[in-house]
Amino acid sequence: MSHRPDVLAGMIRIKNFHQQFLPNALRALLTEIPTPEQNATKFMAQLIQAFSEHFVRCNPSIGLPPGELFVSLPSGRIIVELLSSLPDAVYIICFSLIMLSLDFSCPQIKNKMSKREFIRNTRRAALQPSCDEFLGSLYDNVYLEGVIAKPSIVVPSRSRRSKSSPTHRFPSPHRPFYVFR
Q1: What is the pTM of this model?
Q2: DSSP state string for 67-103
Q3: Helix, strand or coil, per DSSP, at residue 150
Q4: Are the C-beta atoms of residues 137 and 23 closer than 8 Å to each other?
Q5: At what angle do helices 86-105 and 40-58 cross, to 10 degrees?
Q6: How far is 93 from 76, CA to CA, in rounded Å?
Q7: Angle at the Cα of 122 (from 67 to 108), degrees rounded to 5?
Q8: How far apart are the C-alpha atoms of 76 and 88, rounded to whole Å?
Q9: Which PROSITE patterns did the record assign (predicted)?
Q10: Structural domains in the chain?
Q11: Tell me: the pLDDT tens digits for 6-34?
Q12: Helix (H, G, I), strand (E, B) or coil at 53
C-alpha cells in the first residue's frame, strides 16, 4: 500500500469517522491497517495525510481554523508555514498524539509528558489559543484509554545481549517502529 497511496486513501474513505473523537478514530485506524516493514515512515505520512483529510470531511466542525504555524529551529531561526486547511492542523495533531502515545508506552522515558506540556507544545498546531480544553481532552483520552501506537519490541541476539541490556530500545529511523494492536 505504500506504493499505492490511492488504494490507501480509498481504504480510509470506506471508514466512517463521523462524530468520532480524534484519538479514538486514529487508534481504530492504526489498529486495523498494518505498517509495512519497508518504507514505514513514508507509509505513516501517507496514512496520516489521508486520514486527516477524510476525518475533516466527516467532521467539518472540529473547530480548528487555518492559520500560521511557527516552527523554532535549534539555530534560533523561526520558520513560518501557512497551514492552508484544516487537514493540515489535524495532520500535525495526529502526529502529536502518536508521539504522546510513544512517550507513555516507552519504559526508557522516565519523565512522561505532562498535560500542561502537551497543551503548550500542541497549541501552535491547533492554531487557536482558546483550544486548551480541546487539547486537554485529547491528552486525557490517550492517558486514560490507552496508547495509540506502541514502539516495536526488539530482542537482541544472545551473543550481543548482556543481563543489563534492555529488551526495548528506541527505534532507528531505518526501521518501522509502530506496532498496532
Answers
A1: 0.70
A2: EEEEEE-TTS-EEEEEE-SHHHHHHHHHHHHHHHHHH
A3: strand
A4: no
A5: 120
A6: 23
A7: 150
A8: 24
A9: SEC7
A10: 5-145 (1.10.1000.11)
A11: 888 888 899 999 989 999 999 999 888 87
A12: helix
